[in-house]
Every structure is written in structure tokens, then in C-alpha cells.
Design a protein that fits this description.
Layout lengths: L4 E5 H15 L2 E5 L1 H6 L2 H8 L5 E4 L2 H9 L6 E3 L8 H7 L3 E4 L2 H9 L6 E6 L11 H13 L3 E7 L11 H13 L7 E4 L1 H6 L7 E4 L23 E13 L4 E2 L5 E2 L4 E6 L16 E4 L2 E6 L7 E4 L11 E5 L5 H7 L4 H7 L4 E6 L2 E5 L1
Parallel strand pairs: 1-18, 2-3, 2-9, 3-4, 4-5, 5-6, 6-7, 7-8, 8-9
Antiparallel strand pairs: 1-10, 10-13, 10-17, 11-12, 13-16, 14-15, 14-17, 15-16, 18-19
The structure holds pyridoxal-5'-phosphate.
The site of pyridoxal-5'-phosphate (PLP) has 12 residues, from helix 9 and strand 9.
Length: 364
């Protein structure tokens, strides 16, 4: 059997949620879109269950999966509905919706609803992705209220650069949002993980914690450990081959790595088809039986090579941690020229196991 597997530490997830809550001070969404950033949305929602103020997902399919699994907390659709007929399901399953485009405003105006809607009015304060233009936001809020179809209205916006040490862009977005909201008494939600951790002025009533829940840092210059976060996903596989090679031998596709001395080389059953990044360059850290090693040569579809020269105890069957406890996912992401978000979402073909404390919960 293929030895690639993922162990999700649900106690660590809860710990990280508590860090988010404590840092923010108000209510905090647990953002579990994209299958909880690859960690299993239902398992994560159940583990956070009693503590989470609410959950946030990207689309109605993700929300319905949670409802089908018995999750009863509020669930926000961060991008709202894409078609008016989804409003029937929004009502039936008591979902909260973002309203971020003029089309979505029109859908609410034109569609009869069975029960009043909980609407999160998204304002574009500078990211220029989704959101109502700031100068039109108050008007849109008035129009929405005038439909008589709202149970509540909360204002929100999203930061483009809250992870950067230079705070000016986030300050500008916050000021723009405050300006748009002038005279409104509604609650507000501005901050993603980076905002929660670095921008107290933008905390307001609701935060939206994503990546920090999974024990990864949104900042390039501050590690997750420094932020008090614990890794949640351990991505593991095993050595399936070990051999000695003389100096001057090229390893893997393209021969990008050549042994500069006699070396012991291991092959790990994990490649880019499992979600390990193909762009992880020679030197990307891995941990073998708890000891540090490195990727050598190109990552292939099902395998990658590691340097065992200083690890004489490593043998076929030794456990390899691609990321998790010993290897921060952020370190791998950096070497691969990407962010942890992408790596975590991409893991596939591995057997998942969810642990809470020492007890394995489920396996699939
Ligand atoms: C994904 C998402 C978040 C969470 O962002 P992180 O950087 O993972 O904390 C918050 N708000 C919105 C609108 C999102 O789409």
C-alpha cells in the first residue's frame, strides 16, 4: 500500500482557534473553505464545534456538506450566492451570505425569500477583487434594508496586504472602509489571519481566521511557532529505496543534482501527484525518523529523492515527514516559491487520519 498519509491534529486546530480568539478579542469565524485548507472540513468543524462562533466557506456546496454532517453553527458564504435560486437553500439551511456585487443585490431585490436573510455587505476598500464600491455602499445598504428581507446586516471588507510589514496599504483600506461606513451602526468584519495578528485597529466585531487555524504563519518574516501556533497537518510517507552512489552521478529528471562525493540517497513515495510541490528545490528540508535531511534533484510525480549521507540509520520503511511537526509547511512553501495555503490545499492521494489528543478519530 502506498505509504503517503496525512495526520490532522484536531487539538492543535482548537489551540490555534483559541489563539485567534484571544488575539482578536471579539467573535471569530473559523474559515474552513476548500475542505478546511485541505484538512477535512467536516472533521475540523466538528472538532471546533462547541467553541467556534461561526464558520466561513467559499460556496454553497461547502456549506451543504457541513449541514449534512450535522454542523449547526452559523455558516457564512464568503462569496455569497452565484445564482438567485441558491437563496432557497440559503433559507432552508440558515446560511449567512456575503453580498459583494450589484448582481447579488439585484438577486435579493427580485427573489421572494421564505425567511429574512443574514447579509454581510462586502465593500471593496482597495483589493479590487469583490466588493461594492465604497461610495455606493451606503446606498446599497439602504436598498437592501428597503427590501424588508434582511434579518441582519454586517459590513465587511478584505485586506490585500495585511501580511506585509509595511502597514500603509492596510491602513488605507481600513480608512477607506471606515469612511464608507460613516454614520452606520452596523457591526463589521475586516481581518483575515494577518489582520487579526498584526492590525488591532482593524479587529472590530468579527475576525475571519483561516491560515492561522492550520498552524501556518501569514507573514514571511515571522514563524508560526513565534506566533504561538501549532502545526495541524503532518504529511508523511516512507522511504521505498536506499542506495549508495559514487561522486559525479546525476539524480532524477534533468540531472539537476549531481553527487559531489559518495552519497547515500533515499527515494520517498511522495511526489507532485500527492501534492508535494514540484518546484521544491534541492535543499528543501524533510525529516527522516525525526532527523533533518533535504530533497535532492527534481521532484517527480510519485517520488522524490533525499540525501541520507548523514543518516546511516535511515532504511527502507523509515518514516519521512514532508511537513508537520519537524518541518514547518512554511519552510517548504518558501523553497517552492509559493505559500502554505497552496501546499495544504493540494495534498491528495494520501490516507487521512484525524487525531484528537492521542486518539485516532477516523481514517479513510
Ligand atoms: C480565505 C478568506 C479569509 C481567511 O484568510 P486567511 O489569510 O487564511 O486568514 C478571510 N476572509 C475572506 C473573505 C477569505 O476569502
Amino acid at each position: 500500500m502506498r505509504p503517503a498519509r496525512v495526520i490532522v491534529d484536531l487539538a492543535a486546530l482548537r489551540h490555534n482557534y483559541r489563539v485567534a480568539k484571544q488575539c482578536h478579542g471579539g467573535k471569530v469565524f473559523a474559515v474552513i473553505k476548500a475542505n478546511a485548507y485541505g484538512h477535512g472540513a467536516v472533521a475540523c468543524a466538528k472538532a471546533l464545534g462547541a467553541e467556534a462562533d461561526a464558520f466561513a466557506v467559499a460556496c454553497i456546496e461547502e456549506a451543504l456538506e457541513l449541514r449534512a454532517a450535522g454542523i449547526q453553527q452559523p455558516i457564512l458564504l464568503l462569496e455569497g450566492v452565484f445564482e438567485a435560486n441558491e437563496l432557497v437553500l440559503v433559507n432552508r439551511h440558515q446560511l449567512w451570505i456575503a453580498v459583494a456585487t450589484p448582481e447579488q443585490v439585484a438577486m435579493i431585490e427580485c427573489t421572494p425569500v421564505a425567511a429574512p436573510l443574514h447579509v454581510w455587505l462586502k465593500v471593496d476598500s482597495g483589493m479590487h477583487r469583490l466588493g461594492i464600491t465604497p461610495s455606493e455602499a451606503a446606498d446599497v445598504a439602504k436598498r437592501l434594508q428597503a427590501t424588508g428581507k434582511l434579518a441582519s446586516l454586517v459590513w465587511m471588507t478584505h485586506f490585500a496586504r495585511a501580511d506585509e510589514p509595511d502597514e500603509i496599504a492596510t491602513q488605507h483600506q481600513t480608512e477607506c472602509f471606515d469612511q464608507a461606513m460613516l454614520g452606520q451602526s452596523a457591526a463589521a468584519s475586516l481581518s483575515n489571519s494577518a489582520g487579526i495578528l498584526a492590525h488591532p485597529r482593524a479587529h472590530r466585531e468579527w475576525g475571519r481566521a483561516g491560515i492561522m487555524l492550520y498552524g501556518s504563519s501569514p507573514f514571511a518574516e515571522r514563524s508560526a511557532a513565534e506566533l504561538g501556533l501549532r502545526p495541524v497537518m503532518r504529511f508523511l510517507s516512507k522511504l521505498i529505496s536506499v542506495r549508495d552512489l559514487p561522486a559525479g552521478e546525476a539524480i532524477g529528471y534533468g540531472g539537476t543534482f549531481v553527487t559531489d562525493k559518495p552519497m547515500r540517497v533515499g527515494v520517498v513515495a511522495c511526489g507532485y501527484a500527492d501534492g508535494y510541490p514540484r518546484h521544491a528545490s534541492t535543499g528543501t528540508p524533510v525529516s527522516i525518523n525525526g532527523r533533518l535531511s533535504r530533497v535532492i534533484g527534481r521532484v517527480s510525480m510519485d517520488m522524490l529523492a533525499v540525501d541520507l549521507t548523514d543518516l546511516p540509520d535511515a532504511t527502507v520503511g523509515s518514516t519521512v515527514e514532508l511537513w508537520g511537526e519537524h518541518i514547518p509547511v512554511d519552510a517548504v512553501a518558501k523553497r517552492a516559491g509559493t505559500i502554505s495555503y497552496e501546499l495544504l490545499c493540494n495534498v491528495k492521494r494520501a490516507a487521512f487520519e484525524w487525531q484528537d489528543g492521542d486518539t485516532p478519530q477516523q481514517a479513510s
